[in-house]
Amino acid sequence: PAAAIVPAATAADRENYRAHAPSAPLEDQATDAQAQASGYRSVDEAVTMPDGRRVKFSVPTLNFAIKELGERGNFERAHALYLWMGMQKASPKYAPNKYTLVSLFGAASERTHARVIIKVWRAALLFTPDMVGSEVGSAAITALGRCENWPAALQIWKDMGDMGEPRNLYAYTAVLTVLRESARWEEAGDVFRAMRYEEGA
Questions:
Q1: pLDDT over 90 for what percent of the chain?
Q2: What is the mean pLDDT of the chain?
Q3: Which of 71, 79, 86, 112 has a CA positioned 20 to 30 A from the CA of residue 146?
Q4: pLDDT per residue over 119-166, tens digit each?
Q5: CB-count exposure of residue 12 (10 Å: 0-12, 13-18, 19+)
Q6: 6 in helix, strand or coil?
Q7: Phi and psi (nearest 5°) for 48?
Q8: How far, in Å, CA of 92 to CA of 1, rounded?
């Protein structure tokens, strides 16, 4: 069974996770136990070859699985896998990295997914600010554009500035694209003017 493949989180791990890691915010998300079970199934699929042999377990493998789940239109399972990675306190080698965030954000495509992106972004700002850079920010902004949430996309661009993170050309292109597609011309003008004073943009 999938639960035997990876060490189960202890009660203390789950409590710490609920207090500090991004929770499952989708309205239709079932209980934490169901989300964790879905995550285990996703992990099992990610590390199993078609002939039943195990693939070497690694963060890049899991990141690829998140990306693939997103491309197959299964964002909920991609998110569950991300949550599972964050719960492996006993195995920090499975901890999400910036490429995990980029993969998760790239998997979002529907309006309901925006809430997850916002929660994960805020948690990253609070608990792992070293993972938040132009690449991750650009991915989050682009995801929120696909989710038709331009205010949140613009806020992420502002968050990057507030934390002193240099916003590169990719971050500006991402937010300007979202604002253009949402016909937010005044906000786009403000961003464009700010770009003139941003070093590296």
A1: 47
A2: 79
A3: 86
A4: 999 999 998 888 888 999 999 999 999 999 999 999 999 999 888 878
A5: exposed
A6: coil
A7: -115, 125
A8: 23
Tokens of 102: 């980029």
Residues 190 and 187: their CA atoms lie apart, in Å, by: 5
Please state, in angstroms and rounded to a whole number, the distance separating the CA atoms of residues 81 and 62: 8
Asked whether the predicted pLDDT for residue 20 surpasses 50, the reply is no
Q: Are 144 and 153 in contact (CB under 8 A)?
A: yes
Angle between helices 134-146 and 114-127 (to 10 degrees): 160
**Cα separation of 41 and 43, whole Å?**
5
**Separation between Cα atoms, residue 69 and residue 73, nearest integer Å:** 6
Nearest to 121 by CA among 152, 90, 145: 152
One-letter identity of residue 142: T
Of 162, 47, 32, nearest in space to 84 by CA: 32
Going 42 to 59 to 96 to 156, the CA torsion angle's sign is negative
List the structure tokens of 15: 């409590």
pTM, whole model, 2 decimals? Answer: 0.74
Q: Which two tokens stand for residue 124?
A: 């990253």
